Amino acid sequence: MRVLVLHLDADSQAPPEIEDSILTAKQIGETLTKRGHFVQLAPFEANYEKFVEEVSKVKPDIVFNMVEHALGQDQLSAVAPAYLEQMGLRYTGGGPASIVATCDKPFAKEIMRAAGLPTPDWSVGPHWKGLDPHRKYIVKSSTEDASLGLDDGAVVMGSDVPLRAKKCFEEYGGRWFAEEYVEGREFNISVIEDGKNLRVLPLAEIQFIDWNPAKPRIVGYACKWDDSSEESKQSARVFGFENEDPKLAAELSRLTREAFTLFGNRGFARIDFRVDEQGNPLILEVNPNPSLDVDAGFAAACAQAGYDYGNALEKIIAAALQ
């Protein structure tokens, strides 16, 4: 099969998350080549005419879409699949609609709340309707991923939300919102389509080990991208939760399936949860195209389920061809 791995372009000053995306594209290319596919890699081109010209040269049977943003913005990551659909090509991962809906986090929460799926309360500026000055919130980018702007200062009382959002806007631009900060456990749950079956992979809990009690328990930017940081060294992905609390595990799996279906995801996805101190699961985010790095959470969950990396990639391609 002729496979085009479409990835982000980057210069020598690329931040870690962009470098990781390019490395992952190479890992995918090498793995699929070893499995007998004819694979080519190409950077995403925002100019549609140039994009068509470059992609047409490859004549791919399938495009492995690894484009996580366009023109420097995550919220424009839907451009790549939109271009591919315009060309009539099949591609892996979420379509334009699912990406647009999930990439705008407050909008995604509106959709989940309307569908009866649990998600923490939230508020958006500039009016900050419903913001409680006496509750804790985490201030997040409305449209950017990779834990942009998430550090110890991101968790504030409601009264301090407008100032924190203003500071983030001045540093990063874009829109920012406040989500109720949930004390409790964090889970990253991956799902893969295996033929006609939608399979929830073994549940991964992010555990905060010997964590400084003065620091909020969040997977911030340093935790995610700086292996030398205190946050990275003191957090760990742990499997086996299903045996500890099968009832809660079943509920997390049910919600994962419903969220996957609600947003029209395809092939694979990851749903992030917090479980509050009363044991209630709350959906934080839905990621229709999670990282496929061999060391990332999705690949780890696949390994726990008995899929090797190459086999998981083949399942994702098969789902795109259905």
Low-confidence stretches: none
- Count up the helices: 12
- Look at the structure and give the CATH class of the largest domain: Alpha Beta
Radius of gyration: 19 Å
Tell me the structural class: alpha+beta
Proportion of helical residues: 25-40%
Largest sheet: 6 strands, antiparallel
* Average pLDDT number: 91
Shape: globular
β-strand number: 13
By CATH, the topology of the largest domain is D-amino Acid Aminotransferase, Chain A, domain 1
Distance between the termini: 15 Å
CATH superfamily of the largest domain: ATP-grasp fold, B domain
SSE ordering: EHEHEHHHEEEHEEEEHHEHHEEHH
Q: Mind telling me which CATH architecture of the largest domain this is?
A: 2-Layer Sandwich
> What portion of the residues fall into strands of 2 or more residues?
15-25%
Q: What is the number of independent domains? A: 3
Topology:
Blueprint: E1 2-7, H1 16-34, E2 38-43, H2 48-58, E3 62-65, H3 79-86, H4 96-103, H5 105-114, E4 122-124, E5 136-141, E6 155-157, H6 161-172, E7 176-180, E8 184-194, E9 197-200, E10 204-208, H7 221-225, H8 230-233, E11 235-238, H9 241-244, H10 246-262, E12 268-276, E13 281-287, H11 297-305, H12 309-321
